[in-house]
Recover the amino acids of this structure.
């Protein structure tokens, strides 16, 4: 059984990327690392590197999309400890970064119509106050 004085963490997808880096850093802090990896060979290689750096690491074959695999992983963790302190559910795909869509420049809302000053002689045809008037009854 693993030393229960240590904080323990299970990291899914821990064989590379952010998961592996988290494992490395927490291993440096003295945590017990349960290193989840869906591919056993990749997991073994990663666990080997962590162990070489002094981490206390246990490889846990784990594909998070398989209930069977999750159940087997749980059994394996229980063989080592009766207490798991932290779960880092990191497994996943980073996805593709996409550029934000370029926004079309907004059409100016400023009127091009000259401002009505209300003074005679400066009447503007589209102005509400002095626009075209009906010439009824003239
Ligand atoms: N990197 C970013 O900028 C970024 C940004 C936002 C969110 N994230 C999230 O952070 C997490 C890690 O990202 P990352 O960049 O380190 O990705 P990564 O380098 O591709 O690593 C992903 C890890 O998840 C594992 N994995 C994938 N599907 C799995 C499954 N069904 N069961 C178990 N393990 C599985 C991979 O295993 P294999 O080696 O077998 O493929 C790998 O170990 C992902 O969940 C990602 O969505 C990342």
């Amino acid at each position: 059984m693993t030393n229960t004085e240590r904080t323990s963490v299970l990291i899914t997808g821990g064989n590379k990327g952010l998961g592996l880096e988290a494992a490395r850093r927490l291993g440096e802090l003295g945590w017990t690392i349960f290193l989840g990896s869906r591919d056993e060979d990749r997991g073994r290689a990663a666990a080997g590197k962590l162990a070489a750096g002094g981490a206390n690491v246990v490889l846990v074959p784990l594909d998070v999309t398989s209930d069977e695999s999750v159940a087997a992983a749980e059994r394996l963790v229980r063989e080592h400890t009766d207490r798991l302190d932290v779960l880092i559910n990191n497994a996943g795909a980073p996805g593709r970064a996409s550029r934000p869509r370029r926004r079309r420049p907004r059409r100016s809302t400023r009127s091009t119509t000259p401002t009505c000053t209300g003074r005679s002689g400066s009447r503007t045809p589209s102005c509400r106050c002095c626009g075209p008037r009906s010439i009824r009854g003239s």
